[in-house]
Amino acid sequence: ASPVVRCAAVRHRYRKLDPALIAALQQELDLRRLFQELQLLSGGDAEEALEWLRELQRQGHLPADLDLEAFARSLEEDRTLLLDAEGQRRLSGSGQREIRRRALEEIFRGLRRGGAGEHAVRAAGVGQEALPETRRYRFGDDLHRLEPVRSIWNSLQRNLGELRLEAQDLEVQETEQLTSSATVVAIDVSYSMVFYGEDRLTPAKKVALALTELIETRYPGDHVEVVRFGDEAVPIASGDIAALQAGPYHTDTREALALSRRLLQRRHQPNRQVFLVTDGHPTAIQEGQRVYRNPWSLDLKIVNRTLEEAEACRRERIVITTFMLATDSNLVDFVDKMTRINRGRAYFASPDALGEFVLADYIRNRRRRLR
């Protein structure tokens, strides 16, 4: 066949995409999203997530002719899933990144302009990202920010069409004022996160996944760590976020703040902050080798020790932003008091809106140095 015929064949092939192929691709895409959601709900257990897909198919929620075994093999072929030494499927590093990207996209789609935690807040000054606006050159401005078209136009206007460029004609691009941040996301994994018939843990995990993906891909100069806390506080790797599961644990908020403060003491970024995601008041504190617990009321010993740690964070210029997934009056009073002591921030949100608040607030904090 001649080259012209081959070219025509290629054009015809792309113009006449098979609708059945498009439907199959869309179906697989939706199935991957469902699988990712089930991964979070199952605590990162790939085999359990696949079994839930089979159960959904048995119940008639998925088409009977859908080949789930072929879908599982496709996840192995593209190395989303790997086989461990026991022959069990587990999520790979690329599979974890895919879940983080999905969480980031899902949360950013919920950001509403002008709503709570507005996304864009600008401050002009020396920075790294150029803005479309320009201003007159000032001594000390970077010369590579010079805007030649506006500068020449100023000279032509000033000299009635004659080009005689002087310092007063020069304009430079404005830049966005950016600073680096070190953030610890502390996630409550106490039993109350799933106990009252509402899954509050999965939205919290999505937030941590999305923040990790955002910082690693968009802000490489920043740093983020994740801490889970119940009866104790423990740092976890970003790859273990999806596997988080709720207790039976109490809520040691003081230990979560203390560990976060120790982690942030090692960082040199100008902004250091803790995002505390919880649904209840503190019910436990560490006392040496034992844990003192009182799940029934606001225990003054526990509350005061927690507030002392919030004040210690303030002294070290660590801002606490609390995202409370409950609105009980006692909880509101406690969070208000902790926020005043730390001079931080507090949001009371439903689990559905949690991601919007966290990410919007994070990006806003990067636009300026805190305090």
Oligomer: single chain
Mean pLDDT: 79
| Weakly predicted, low-confidence segments | 1-17, 112-127
Tell me the strand order in the biggest sheet: 7-6-5-8-11-12
Distance between the termini: 72 Å
Helicity range of the residues?
40-55%
- What's the order of the H and E elements? HHHHEEHEHEEHHEEHEEEHEHEH
Structural class: alpha/beta
Strand content is: 15-25%
Radius of gyration: 26 Å
What's the total number of strands? Answer: 12
Mass-distribution shape: flat
Helices and strands in order:
Layout: H1 3-15, H2 19-41, H3 46-58, H4 68-77, E1 81-83, E2 89-91, H5 93-109, E3 124-136, H6 148-158, E4 171-176, E5 181-188, H7 192-195, H8 201-218, E6 223-229, E7 233-236, H9 253-265, E8 271-278, E9 284-287, E10 290-293, H10 300-315, E11 318-324, H11 329-342, E12 345-348, H12 354-366
Parallel strand pairs: 5-6, 5-8, 8-11, 11-12
Antiparallel strand pairs: 1-2, 3-4, 6-7, 9-10
Helix pairs in contact: 2-3, 5-8, 8-12, 9-10, 10-11
Which tags fit this structure?
19% strand; 371 residues; two-stranded antiparallel sheet; six-stranded mixed sheet; 12 strands; 12 helices; single chain; alpha/beta
